[in-house]
Every structure is written in C-alpha cells, then in structure tokens.
C-alpha cells in the first residue's frame, strides 16, 4: 500500500486547491474585459466587442455615498465605463488604514474603506460597467493631503519615522516636481524597503478584491511624472499577482504631458507586453483638429500591434479651466470618430460629469454607434472633400457603412465606393438626442450638410 506523509499530503492538498482556484479563474476569464479578438483597437466583454462610454460625478467613485444611483443613471443612458481612483483626499472620504490613538497603523485595515471598494466592484459587475482603477491617486501624496491626512506620511502613522522611512512630512510642490520619495521607493530608484513593504501591502489588498472580478482595468497613476522604473515596478507586480491567481489583466500608465507625442509617453506605447492598453486622457487638454490628429499619429505607430486607446477623463466645461462645455462635447465625440476605445466625461468642475448634457451625449453616442458596425470601422477623413479643419470626421468599414460627425454646421462631400449603390442616409440630432430626417441617396459622391445647427451625425448604410 502506498503511504503519504502528513506533510506531503498537505502539500498535495495545497497544490490541488490552487489548481482548483486557477481553473475557476480561467473559466471566468472567458468573459473578462480584454482587447477584442476581431479588432484589438476596441475592448471585448462577455465575449462581445464593446465601446466604452462613461461619465460620473466623482472620480474615486467608491467614496461617493450615492454611487449606486450614479451607476443606475449611467446604465440608463447607455454608459458602461467609470473611473475609480483609490484616493481619499476629499472631504468625507476614508483612508485604507485604521487609526489607533490618533495615528494610523499601517498593519491594520480600515474595514469601511474596503467595504466601499468591494461594494463598487459588485454593483458595477451586476450592471456590466467596466471599472478603470487608478492605484496611486497622485495628488494624495502631495501638499495638504500628504501633510495632514495621508497614512503613509511619517508623522501620521505609528510604523515609521522620517529617519527610518526616508519620507518627508511635508511636500508643498506640484507632483510634476517629483519631490516626494514615496514615488521613488522601488529598488531601481531610492530603494526604501519599509515604505515599499506597506505599498505592496496596500496593492495586494486592492487585488484581493479586484482579482475576483473580470470587469476591471488597471492604471498605475494619475497624470504622473514618475520615472518609468516606478510605473514598471507596479505594472509587473500586479501582472505577477494576477498570474498567480489565474487572471490575465490589462494595465496602463497615464503620463502627464498634454502632447501625447512627447517621448515620455513612449514608455507606455512601446511596451505592449507590459501595458495592454494606453490611456491618452491628457490629450483631452487639446482642442479642435489637433485633438483629433495627435491620437491618429499614435494609432499609426502601433498599427502592427494595435491596442485600445482609452480616455478616462474628457476635460471641458464652462465651470472649469480646461476648455469650454463645447470643447468637452467635441472631444468626447472626436474620440469616438477617431477610432478610440473608450471616452468618459471628467468629473465637475473640470468636465461634464454625468449631468444632463453628458447623459444626452452618451445616449446619443450609443444610438449613433449602434446604427452601423463601428467595431470594423476605421477613421477615414480621406473620404471627405471640401472639408475645413474640425468641420467633419468620418468612420467607414468594408461593408460600405459610413458615419460622419459634424461638431457644428458644415458641408462636405463623401466619396462612396463602389458607386452605383443606393444608400440610406439618416441624420441624428445629437444635441436633442433624436433621429432626424432620412432619405435614399446614390452616386459615388454624396453631399452632406446637416439639417440644422449644433452637433449632428450622418449614418450612411447600403439599402
């Protein structure tokens, strides 16, 4: 008879348990968020290609008391994409660690913080809303948030001092100055082991919740100026932990320069094996034709290995400082007609959040993009003649389907090949959220002029 020692039995049992867990994760992964198998410039979820459209009143949404109402509202207008920074810098927020006698203990969790996070993940999963997490909420590690609130600050916790940690108690500069060694803790930089220990502990805790779900994307930072070594450390850390759990996850980094052709963005664009998508939100500081052209340059650069380009923050609102409301609406739509995978209105006051205008435009975008096969379409402004800068933007696919977006009144000519077919032309009134007049057209040159003022989209499909 074959006898197994107690130690060997326990070891085999452990391996079997891990294998069972891995099998569970692998099975669940079939429907996970991932680049589309048919067109990896877009995402796929639950086995189907999806265009991610979103907006919300807050960015660290799990800290917002009525986030469930936000999710229901977003879902009702066709939205499926939210941003969730893991930050705690706003009034009413809670931090991830427990306070003991007036100071944080980095060896004890604040259950309320994690309850809120878990609840957001569950509620979004039920509604099939994709969550893009930002692991390090950049501005929590500078200025007043760092000095007065953050548990990682030496004088705010019981676990280390400025001397033992190498961290300061005040950092009054803007994050782009990189004066907080907190973002240089990794071995390739300043190598601060006691700080890194608790940073890893925090990220592991995030993953203990998020890796249970297949609708989560990961961004390392918010508009960061940190070194590539910092970003790569956390990207590799998360990928390794995910792999141990049988998950394949998709990660990115949000670099700070507004010009996404800046070489600082190359780190993300040039490492597809590490960064499975690229967040180009900082491009949404640009306006008009430039806003459209810069991502097109990047799309061409990665054409051999295409990946989704996400916009988790679309700036622009009359109440803010990064462009007008009109700028925000045009940026949202140019992202769609530029063939980008995701576009979401930034929170107020910098963006339109999920107010009435945002709701109407999300609903309009879903209506327009459902009227043709956007997932096989490509930006084709070359098919437009008599076009001025920022006058109109075209998407077209091999099924002879075309869609043209007009930010304002315009008049362009669309080349349709092969000629001789009869097409149905439908107009969508974006600003009022309704289909307008439709007609039949033919010929190889179609004159397109919106029937009214404001934003319009034309959808041309074969009869």
What does this 3D model show about the protein?
By secondary structure, the protein is of the alpha/beta class. It has two domains: 339 residues, Glycosidases (TIM Barrel), CATH 3.20.20; 85 residues, Immunoglobulin-like, CATH 2.60.40. It contains eleven helices and 22 strands. The chain has a six-stranded antiparallel sheet with strand order 14-16-17-22-19-20. A four-stranded parallel sheet has the order 4-13-12-11, covered by helices on one side. The N terminus is likely disordered.
The CATH homologous superfamily of the largest domain corresponds to Glycosidases
Total separate domains: 2
Can you give the mean pLDDT? 93
Number of helices: 11
Regarding quaternary structure, what we see is single chain
Looking at the structure, the CATH topology of the largest domain is TIM Barrel
Q: Count of DSSP E strands?
A: 22
Q: Which architecture of the largest domain would the CATH scheme give at its second level?
A: Alpha-Beta Barrel
The helix content, as a percent range, equals 25-40%
Describe the largest sheet.
Answer: 6 strands, antiparallel
Strand order of the largest sheet: 14-16-17-22-19-20
* CATH class category of the largest domain: Alpha Beta
Give a nutshell description of this structure.
By secondary structure, the chain is α/β, with parallel strands linked by helices.
